[in-house]
Amino acid sequence: MWRLHHFTLCPFSRKVRFALAVKGVTHELLLERPWEKRAEFNALNPAGQTPVLQQGAMVLADSVAILEHFEETLDRTPLLGATPEARAETRRLVAWFDQKFYGEVGALLLGERMYKRTVLKGAPDGGIIRQAGRQADMHLDYIDFLLEQRAWLGGGQFGLADIAAAAHLSVADYLGGLEWDGHDPARTWYSAIKSRPTFRPLLAERLEGLPPPPHYDKLDF
Q1: Cα dihedral sign, 34-35-40-43
Q2: Residue 220's pLDDT is what?
Q3: Residue 99 burial by Cβ neighbours in a 10 Å radius (0-12, 13-18, 19+)
Q4: pTM
Q5: Which residue among 129, 163, 175, 186 is least enclosed by CB atoms within 10 Å?
Q6: Cβ atoms 44, 5 nearer than 8 A
Q7: What are the angstrom distances between the C-alpha of 156 and each of 89, 137, 148?
Q8: Residue 189, CA distances (Å) to 131, 144, 145, 177, 193 in order
């Protein structure tokens, strides 16, 4: 069986977990706190980052590499799209959330509301949190724009763009960084994601000492 080294609020771990569940790939979860820099974990991935997927001598690191591996080796439930154009658009949007959303929103919230509070035992910087909130609102505007033209983020079918976006948004939402009012298309889409049995286990998890807002796992927000 595959063994997935993950962290509860790592959006890249969540992306892999959601996609593997959709594809029906069974795996064992191993909790990793990357900031502890364990030698055994760093030997698996010299970057020292989650997620890492392992089966015997095979080690896959980086969420994009992991999911590309399963797209290439599993025929069932393709998530990239049926045409070269659809696959290019999916990859563009995955990169948007992995790089732009994470850099402008997720990393800031994780640093201030998770790492400072639970690891450093310090107080968050309100200015940085407000900055993340403003930038999150612009990203929700962009999601609204996409969904006014498409059934799903990448086009007509649910796929990896939706999985990546939901993974990043769920972490930001857990940390109280999203204001859903005024974003009806995004809210309706995310409610549909939250109702999926393959996504519900992620919403059920909690980080000790850091509870999410009351609406976090509710379908009606």
Answers
A1: positive
A2: 84
A3: exposed
A4: 0.97
A5: 129
A6: yes
A7: 12, 24, 12
A8: 25, 9, 12, 18, 6
Question: 87: part of which helix (H) or strand (E)?
Answer: helix 84-95
When the pLDDT of each residue in the chain is averaged and rounded to a whole number, the result is 97
What is the band of 190 on the pLDDT scale with cuts at 50, 70, 90? very high
Q: Is the peptide bond before 211 cis (omega within 30 degrees of 0)?
A: no
Backbone φ/ψ region at 24: left (φ over 0), alpha (ψ -120 to 50), beta: left
Please give the pLDDT value at position 19.
Answer: 98
- Domains along the chain with CATH numbers: 2-73 (3.40.30.10), 84-204 (1.20.1050.10)
Q: Which amino acid is at 32?
A: E
Cα distance between residue 7 and residue 14, in whole Å: 8
